[in-house]
Amino acid sequence: MYEVKCIGILTSGGDAPGMNAAVRAVTRAAIYNGIAVKAIYRGYKGLISNEIADFKTQSVSNIIQQGGTILKTARCMEFKTPEGRKLAYDNMVAAGIDALVVLGGDGTFTGARIFAQEYNVPVVGVPCTIDNDLAGTDFTIGYDTALNTIIEAVDKIRDTANSHERLFIIEVMGRDAGFLALNAALASGAEAAIIPEIQTGVDQLSELIGRGFRKSKNSSIVIVAESDVTGGALGVASRLKKEHPEYDARVTILGHIQRGGSPTAQDRILASRLGAAAIQALLEDQRNVMVGIVNDAVHYEPLASAIKNEKPVNRLNLDVLKMLSI
Ligand code: F6P
Q1: Could you give the number of structural domains in the chain?
Q2: Burial letters for 140-178: b for 16+ Cβ neighbours within 10 Å, e otherwise?
Q3: What CA–CA distance (Å, rounded) separates 324 from 79?
Q4: Residues 6+ apart with CB under 8 A from 320
């Protein structure tokens, strides 16, 4: 059995609300269990450039409610090279770190998996991304806050849509996943969600127009997930303009406001549970897993399958959306 004495913790990739709550939970759970904590700043970039500092319980005081990440984050190209990973490993060993806890999404775990295999280092991932696109956990940290931010924005846009009797096409984030778009559409009472998962031969825009979605309404909201498959809000709008010039449509791209803000209670609870679970996983000699919560129970998912993009959106929710938007 491998005894972990000192962990390194880092946040990497896109920030997500609740990352700080997770940093706090990992740090406190480690110290509670007699494990020392080293903070690595700026993700893998900081591991390569040796930006490593000791963390105490007080280092994570008063951050549970803060958006962003106190550890900073970066997307690091150098970590994709064997030379970069070698530098990272040397710095890790020199700092006395014998296991890594990495907070992030898809890209973070892809790097972690390769590093763990190359150097036989125990790595535990904590799912932090607003996209909710990781298998092995019902929800990722940040998703609930982002969803609530989107709904708040859509509610405001709806006032203008209603006053001007316009159609609004609103683009939300999600990379290649439609969780945010579909569930934001349901929660904001939108007419439709155009998501990348529905691509095989279905023209979502024609289908929407075909079902006469504006017959009973003067204003409409359509939520589009960013992606090459959907064409994003601008793509949908330009087609609409060509094919249906009778619609007075406007586009809003919500952008990075979706990633900021104080985390919701759900995200703080999830972050606290998953941070503690990450340390528990190391104590149980788990390696190269992502911790998740499935049906209210802690679950260990191999990093490889967490990032395979195999968590499906619930397509039945699209039927509910159609039914309720008549
Ligand atoms: O993965 C999180 C995310 O916000 C995606 O939804 C989005 O596609 C991407 O990051 C944007 O990344 P950046 O902030 O680097 O432009």
Answers
A1: 2
A2: bbbbbbbbbbbbebbeebbeebeeeebbbbbbbbbbbbb
A3: 47
A4: 186
Residue range 187-229, pLDDT digits in tens: 999 999 999 998 655 677 777 777 766 667 778 899 999 999 8
**Given the DSSP bridges, would you call strands 289-294 and 123-127 parallel, antiparallel or unpaired?**
parallel
Residue 58 makes CB contacts below 8 A (sequence gap 6+) with none
Instruction: For residue 218, give the H/E element and its range.
Output: none
CA-nearest residue, atom 14 of ligand 1: 14
Q: Is residue 325 part of a domain?
A: no
* Residue 320 within a domain: no
321 occurs within a structural domain: no
268 contacts 128 by C-beta, under 8 angstroms: no
Q: What is the phi/psi pair of residue 99, to 5°?
A: -155, 155
For the CA of 131, the closest atom of ligand 1 is 6
pLDDT digits (tens, 9 = 90+) for 111-148: 999 999 999 999 999 999 999 999 999 999 999 999 99
Residue 306: both structure tokens together: 């967490």
Ligand 1: residue of 72, 131, 228 to mutate (most ligand atoms within 8 A of CB) is: 131
Q: Let me know whether 168 and 299 are in one domain.
A: no
Are 164 and 39 spatial neighbours (Cβ–Cβ below 8 Å)?
no
Whether the pTM exceeds 0.85: the reply is yes
Residues with CB under 6 A from ligand 1: 14, 105, 129-131, 173-175, 226, 259
Q: Which domain holds residue 226?
A: 144-259
